[in-house]
Structure formats: C-alpha cells, structure tokens
Amino acid sequence: MSDYRDLIARAEQRIDHGTRERSAGADDKARAIAGEAARRGRGGPKAIATELGVSEKTVSQAISRARKAAAPDRSLPHDTLERLLSAELPGLPPLPASHWQTLAYVLNGTVIDLTWIESPHLLLAGEVDDLDDEYEGVPALAAACRALTRVQALAVIDALLRGDLAALPTKD
Questions:
Q1: Which of 14, 46, 97, 164 stands the most exposed, by the fewest C-beta atoms within 10 Å?
Q2: 172 in any annotated domain
C-alpha cells in the first residue's frame, strides 16, 4: 500500500521540480527582455515587441516580472546529473551481457528510493545475493556490484532503469 504512495510522492516531486523550472525559465526570459529593453533605451520595448511578434503589453509585463523576480539562483546546469552518470559508464568494468540482463531483472522488481543514495553498490549486491540459484554467476555478479563506486552504481542503475543496456560495457 505504501509503495504506490511513494510512487505518487516521487511523481509530485518531479511535477514540483518542473513547475519551478518553468517559473525560473520565465524569470530568465523576462530578465533578458528587460535587459535588452534597457540597453536599447527609449523605444526599445516597442522594437522588441515587433521583433518577437508579441504585443507591447507582453513586453511590459515581462519587464515588470523581471523587476519583481528574485535574483537568479546560481546552480549547476539542469542536466548535470545525467551528464555525470553518462560520464561514468565508459569507466565501468565490463561484465558479460547476461550479468547486465540479470541486474535489469533484479531492478525490475525493486523499489529504488532515497535510501539507495548512500550505498547503492551494496544494496544492489544484496539484491543479487537474494537471487535463486537458477542464475549463473551470482557470487561474481554480487562481487562486481560491491566493487563499484557509489556514482558508478547509480550510473548502472540509471542505465538499467532506462533500458539502455547497450550503454554498459560488456565482455564475452
């Protein structure tokens, strides 16, 4: 019962993040318009409205929004996490394709939540250890998981959850 509530909470967090990003984007756009209008001086807002194909009122509202908007947050680019995880993939030790498929199977039935941030490699290894004996190479796969760094383990989990097994290095 609580699993679906966790999923709903995560979905709401993503929605809230998107709302904040849209608002920040609108503030950035308003600042750009206001800055250009100030640079152009008298008649600038009217020229900008013509160039952008919007009304002068829209430009005036953007300038007003820019005045009211808080200073922009200084933060990393929005895609930093994706880039970081992607950069980790080439440095992963290659595993047989069957091992990556086994990990994908394991993750398919596992709820990944915030507790995985601290020790994802150990939690992943624990999930592998819980597999039945029908899977070949379980001890070696669990050991490989334990040998991963935190970021490497998160990169593996991300790639597998996205279904991108091709991004993971394999050996025959």
A1: 14
A2: no
What is the domain range of residue 40?
2-68
Same domain? 93 vs 149: yes
What is the Cα–Cα distance from 33 to 138, expressed in whole angstroms?
59
Q: 62: burial class by Cβ within 10 Å (0-12, 13-18, 19+)?
A: buried
Q: Are residues 125 and 46 in the same domain?
A: no
Residue 159 burial by Cβ neighbours in a 10 Å radius (0-12, 13-18, 19+): buried
Question: In angstroms, rounded to a whole number, what is the distance separating the alpha carbons of residues 165 and 160?
Answer: 6
pLDDT tens string 121-131: 999 999 999 88
Spatial CA neighbour of 149 closest among 85, 104, 96, 103: 85
Predicted structure pTM score: 0.60
Angle at 47 between CA 42 and CA 50, to 5 degrees: 155
